[in-house]
Amino acid sequence: MSEEQTVSLVDVLEEDEELEEEASAVLAGSDSDHCSYPQGYVKRQALYACNTCTPKGGEAAGVCLACSYKCHEGHDLFELYTKRNFRCDCGNRKFTELQCKLYPEKEDVNTLNKYSQNFFGVYCTCGRPYPDPEDQVEDEMIQCVVCEDWLHGRHLGCLVPDCVELQEMICESCMNKNPFLWTYAAHLAVPGAAAQVKEETVTEEANTNLPKKEEKGDDVIQPSCKRSREEVGPSCRLNEFHAVGQKRVRSGAVFWPSAWRSKLCSCNACKESLSEAGLSFLLDESDTVLAYENKGKNNEQRQQRHDPLMSALDNLNRVQQLEIIHGYNDMKTELKDFLQRFAAEGKVVTPDDIRQFFEQQQSRKRQRVDAGRFYCT
Length: 377
Ligand SMILES: [Zn+2]
Ligand SMILES: [Zn+2]
Ligand SMILES: [Zn+2]
Ligand SMILES: [Zn+2]
Ligand SMILES: [Zn+2]
Ligand SMILES: [Zn+2]
Description:
The chain is mainly alpha-helical. 37% of the residues lie in helices and 9% in strands. The chain has helices spanning 3-27, 65-70, 172-177, 180-188, 223-232, 237-244, 268-276, 289-303, 308-313, 318-344, 351-370; strands at residues 42-50, 63-64, 77-86, 141-143, 150-152, 168-170, 254-256. β4 and β5 form a beta hairpin. The chain starts with a helix and ends in a 7-residue tail after the last helix. Bound molecules: zinc ion (6 copies). The site of one zinc ion has 7 residues, from β5.
């Protein structure tokens, strides 16, 4: 066995897991068998645009996961990752030839759908495709949580912080369209890279008239803050932030730490202005991509019951099931560790090594049986 084969075996194991995780994160929250159209504007779903059916120059359209499989098989598809509040367009008036196989009874258009350059396969402020054959620079694409476009890390106008997957990003253009976000940014956001203080414009069109009362539906606010605020009487958190007048450079994209949405003011006046700006989703923590991905993971776990191994186990009692699953996962992890050790040391795995591994497994299993902890049938 050559060294190359050894490494590739580990790679395969690892990559397989990574790909599986990545794919399930995007897809598991969406239905792969039924067109999502009857559900109306879906809160968040995996979306595709079809370059074969609705190419650039025409009207933009998006199709759901199931339609991408069943109605656009073999077509040139753009993977749009996930987008919020979208209703499947497959086969509607925008498609001159194609009929949706899953749900043909659609209205002409979905008037509330929002489209962007992404639906024609271009992204970022630079309007390039992804992957970009002419771009040699390795760079990650980050999705703005407001416009949902994808931007190159180097085109954000700020340094990309570590652990970016745990944070939400709002691009500079969306920040400037909603100036009150800069007030929040000064208090809640990850400090900007070019954090030199600049004068904050004092008047903000959207928020100068906010009343200092009316506080309802603030159950998202942390208990400690709630208490202290009840002591001083109801108020608007955004106004409070504004009054403090903390400064932040108003340029570049802004990164927000996890749970930042729960710190936004949800007084009636703020709710209203968020809704006018089309940003009500910012008060909804289940709108995040992270929440969507977690939903997908939970679905996956439930679906594991349909795994052939799992159904074979259905006939065993609960203790037996748990023991076997436990043993199976242990074995998988240990095999992976075992192979990784070889890769790390640059050593070649021989058939003897593999045999030895399984022999060790057997003897360990026997020890467990002897210890009376393994219930063999
Ligand atoms: Zn569909
Ligand atoms: Zn198509
Ligand atoms: Zn379809
Ligand atoms: Zn770019
Ligand atoms: Zn944006
Ligand atoms: Zn408020």
